[in-house]
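Field reference: sequence -> structure
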Amino acid sequence: MKMHQFLDATYLKSSAQAGITEAENLEIVKSLTNEAIANNYKLLMIRAKYIPKVKQLLRIANAPTLIGTVIGFHEGTSTVAKKLTEAETAIHLGADELDFVLNYNAFKEGNFQLIDQEIIACTKYCLEKQKVIKWIIETAALTNEEIVVISQRIREIVLKHFTIASEKNVLVKSSTGFYKTANHIPNGATLENMRLIIAHAKPLKVKAAGGVKTLEMAKKMIALGVDRIGTSSAKEIVKNEINSNKIDQY
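Structure field:
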């Protein structure tokens, strides 16, 4: 299956969130970069400040792995103007793909005018810069009905305002992985959530993120029709796939 080509290996904690020094946090990012080089991951998803160092390491290794970062992370409540400024900075630093946190609170409050403005403006900017954009809808904060409605809305806006060719460069993504749920309920890429997104966002591509930690779950996601998987367990997933393939050869 070549699982590595579906994986966006992810580390998005700040040093404060991780409870370590900035130097220690950078070492984690560098370690993940070396891991990505060794395993040929599709993409590294990191904070924007680390992009120049990661880009340098990838260039030295002549590695094809792409670099992604997050915009409006992780609450999604910043203004459209601020998100565009963040995106401009990230692209200047060398980002290939940008994962925007949709203002899902505004959506839940029924402020569709703001949501539509945000989707149109940010998508337009990224596509003009020839960058991939992913819209994080934060499924754990939404009801099933809301997941359906926002997935459809993103699809309809993209198909109405942009060319058919842009479909491959716009994705709907499940989760930031940072949303706090009650009683440890899964907060992102459940099979049920991903079925809803796939059913109502296609032909846009879909990214599962938030809780995909095993090879078994990754395979199930791909079987559903997921195009990309964001995970902090990329190394374990690839290792288990290699071991599984070895067993199958006997």
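Note: The radius of gyration is 17 Å.
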